[in-house]
Amino acid sequence: MCGRMDVDADMLNRWVPEILGLSFSTVTNHDLRPTQRIDTLALVNGRLSQLGATWGIKPSWATSLLINAKCETVRSKQTFVKSYVQRRCLVPCSGFYEWRAELNGKKKYRFTAINQRPLYMAAFWYPGEMPQIVTLTRDAPSLGTRAIHTRFPVFIRAEDAEIYVLGSADEADEVLGAAGDSGIEVMPARPD
Question: Which H/E stretch holds residue 145?
Fold first, then answer.
């Protein structure tokens, strides 16, 4: 499960355009939280382009904001299925944070790419004056990540970005199935 992201504009504004061959410009937020503005990559005017959104939805029946959906069940949940099938997007980020209960209280950990390149978090969006997104999670894929938290964001490889966003839902499912945590490193985060 992911409830905080790290967005480093210097890194993302350099590498996202270079790696994906498109225009992208964001602002730094080392503690991006639900309800805040987030820059995504989505299908806009027939091509992969930047789309500003906010993180989280609040359906009328929900008692709290929904920020994550399980990739294993996203197509069987009425709240998520239409947006997942029709409006997938990616969230370029520099990393994300998780907390683990330890003897002296909760400890914050930062997850980043070993190669210091962007991570592309799988998500889907809902239309509106300001679109809203929900990110996808899966069971933590390795013992190293599972030791921190049982759920883990789904990251899409850069070479699969267009397939995930522009392809069919079945093609997106295949890309989700290929996602893992190789190339991810975790370290204790600096105290807030």
Answer: helix 143-146
- The candidate with the shortest Cα–Cα distance to 56, out of 170, 135, 2, is 135
Query: 105-113 and 29-32: which strand pairing?
Result: unpaired
Tokens of 14: 């350099």
45: three-class secondary structure by DSSP? coil
Q: How far apart are CA 132 and CA 104, in angstroms?
A: 36
List the domain boundaries for the chain: 4-188
Task: Write down the pTM of the prediction.
Answer: 0.91
Topology of domain 4-188, CATH: hypothetical protein yedk fold (3.90.1680)
Taking residue 118's Cβ as centre, other Cβ atoms within 10 Å add up to 27
Give the tens place of pLDDT for each residue, 143-188.
Answer: 556 566 678 889 999 999 999 999 999 999 999 877 666 688 888 8
Range from 38-47, 83-92, 99-108, 116-125 carrying the lowest mean pLDDT: 99-108
CA distance 44 to 22: 12
59/9 Cα distance (integer angstroms): 31
